[in-house]
């Protein structure tokens, strides 16, 4: 499904700020894999997601989705295969446009826009149904500007937008980190239900250890541009937070250093 | 009074095409595009030259629009492909166009006094001078406003709007933002050039210096329109920009009537736009003071 082979990425090469963000990383995911990613500060978690999405070019290595080598594809062309939700609730939607306009754009993800109407009448009914399932009271607000919604509503909407055209791969970059705990939990549960309903292959970065254990069938921990822990299935299910910290310390040779990580 | 009002409204309508062009870059794409200072006289130059050569006014205006579109593409490519900041890319094209405009016209000023224009065309149907300008103004504004409204209701138009609000989001939805930015600049500058073509015909001349201050007049129209007539929806915003352009012309006519020297017009407009742009800050301060009390 997703194959990352020997990918490296260095930011600001040759300068005093040189930062090796990914150091010869490889990762294989099978269809239906739901992988949670945790790690210390600057471990390369976001870099790996952004490399897959094509936000910047990688220095070396290959990224392959379903036999298609996307390593050199521009970001907008990869969108055909990839759905994304960002950490910042503002990033996933166009604030000045209506809910239905945002949904209509997402319904055409990966297709070249043409001269037919941006929204078709019959789509509105479908949008209303989808919004009703979110259970956030958005189904009657199709023509409201997205900028009026709360952070949680915007993340739920972004999640819907990322998945309404079923992506081969769903990338979640700490998509609940900016939300209050209650809203974060609601969005996470929604995430799980959407993923399991569509059997989506998912890579989710989180700063919350409990969520990393609670969600997904596989967990990887990153440190200094490497994947240092990779557990799945039964082995992952049995893990506790202290186990995880111990595993990390053993593999990385240092205690997990992340000022934002939540242990509970 | 009505003798003054009708020509002023007509002028406002002809200039509104330029204001709509500025709206497309400044508000829709979120780019302050200075190319317009060059494309406005470019449209005037191309149309004047063609009219003098005996082309049909509609053809002349159409070709002026194409010329403006090409200039917009140049700015767009400078910005997206060569990564030159949008403001600077616009300035570069604007400066280059000064020479281009001189080349198109062959000299600094072309008179259209004894040439058939879009207005003589309408006047021949039995209308007065004033009425013919008004009719052309209404028809052209309606035509281009409807065209813009239709276009931005399509998938590609929605993609351009989304690019202005959030380029990251629309790339993640599979749209090439380099393309949408170039397309937006193309449309904007085509409109501005078409406006220049109309203004040259209504003034009776094209001049290489007539573009000075275009961006400021455009911004004044956009901001006055938005403040007075609202921004509830895209349609509402388009109407506001057109009405803003007309209001701006009325304001100018009134201050000139009150005795302001025409030479001070640009200073007046600049101050007006500076104040309008500072409005959100003033409002914020007033609000903050109220909260403090």
From TrEMBL, chain A:
UniProt keyword annotations, A-Z: ATP-binding, Cell membrane, Membrane, Nucleotide-binding, Transport
Entry membrane topology: Peripheral membrane protein
GO cellular component: plasma membrane
Keyword Nucleotide-binding attached: yes
An annotated Gene Ontology molecular function: ATP hydrolysis activity
Domain ABC transporter: 2-249
ATP-binding is among the record's keywords: yes
Cell compartment(s), UniProt: Cell membrane
InterPro entries: AAA+_ATPase (IPR003593), ABC_transporter-like_ATP-bd (IPR003439), ABC_transporter-like_CS (IPR017871), ABC_transporter_ATP-bind (IPR050166), P-loop_NTPase (IPR027417)
PANTHER family according to UniProt: NITRATE ABC TRANSPORTER ATP-BINDING PROTEIN, TAURINE IMPORT ATP-BINDING PROTEIN-RELATED
Name used for this protein in its record: Choline transport ATP-binding protein OpuBA
Organism in which the protein naturally occurs: bioreactor metagenome
From TrEMBL, chain B:
Localization annotation: Cell membrane
Keyword line: Cell membrane, Membrane, Transmembrane, Transmembrane helix
One Pfam family per UniProt: BPD_transp_2
Keyword NAD: no
GO-annotated molecular function: transmembrane transporter activity
Topology of this chain in the membrane: Multi-pass membrane protein
TM annotation in the entry: 12-29, 58-78, 85-104, 131-152, 179-200, 212-231, 238-259, 265-282
Entry keyword Phosphoprotein: no
Primary location group: membrane
GO cellular component assignments: plasma membrane
Listed name of the protein: ABC transporter permease
Lineage: unclassified sequences, metagenomes, ecological metagenomes
